[in-house]
Amino acid sequence: MTSIALHGRPMSNYYNKVKLVLLEKGLPFTEVRCGTGSTDEAVLAASPLGKIPFVRIDGQALCESQVIVDYLEAAHPEPPLLPADPLAAAKVRELAAFVDLHLELVARELYPQAFFGGTLGAPAQARVRERLVRHIAGFRRLAVFAPYVAGAQFTLADASAWCHLPLVAMASKIVLGEDLLASAGVPWKDYARQVGERPSAVRVAADRKADLPG
Predict the structure, then answer these.
(1) Assigned superfamily of 4-75
(2) What confidence tens digit (pLDDT) does each residue in 87-135 have?
(3) What pTM did the predictor assign?
């Protein structure tokens, strides 16, 4: 049996993206606590930028969350988290990439002020707002929410969306004074609630809560 060790912390949304897929797949895995930005050579050999998460699969390292979940889907196709049709599968990956790169990565600039006591100047706030408004409008053109983000079935796109959308919404409300997702008509609260009832998500949410400071 394949040995899988997931390295990172449950407070990381990208760690939880991978963990959610592992749980949905019913794959046994161990969790190894590791912070981001490590200078440990053993960590850098597995994740050259010291980012989390990364996995060790039978001792071989793999980093970058989307690469990891794509590997898990290819190596363990049951239960499927991608449609069988190649174009439909690509559309799911398109959504996952859009959420990761055009929503979460942009909103991440707000996190230091929203969650860690930092500050972000007014010009930077205005720049982030402009990008998020434009990118959220693009997301609305791709997302289905019927009931899952890509359609009727839970997919890899939900592993990104469920972990990221609440953070995008909360950070924009705290720093910019407006939940930009809700203002654009994205039904993220109902969506997050529904996905959150899945056993995998219940486990991820509980472990994340236990890992949060305070």
Answers:
(1) Glutaredoxin (3.40.30.10)
(2) 999 999 999 999 999 999 999 999 999 999 999 999 999 999 999 999 9
(3) 0.96
Q: Of 27, 18, 109, 108, which is closest to residue 64 (Cα–Cα)?
A: 18
Interatomic CA distance for residues 100 and 65, integer angstroms: 10
As a CATH number, domain 86-211 is 1.20.1050.10
Q: How far apart are CA 104 and CA 85, in angstroms?
A: 27
- Name 7's bridge partners: 32, 54
d(CA 132, CA 178): 12
Per-residue pLDDT tens over the stretch 10-38? 999 999 999 999 999 999 999 999 999 88
* CA atoms 64, 106, 174, 118: torsion sign: positive
How far is CA 95 from its chain centroid? 12
60-63 and 54-57 as β-strands: parallel, antiparallel, unpaired?
antiparallel
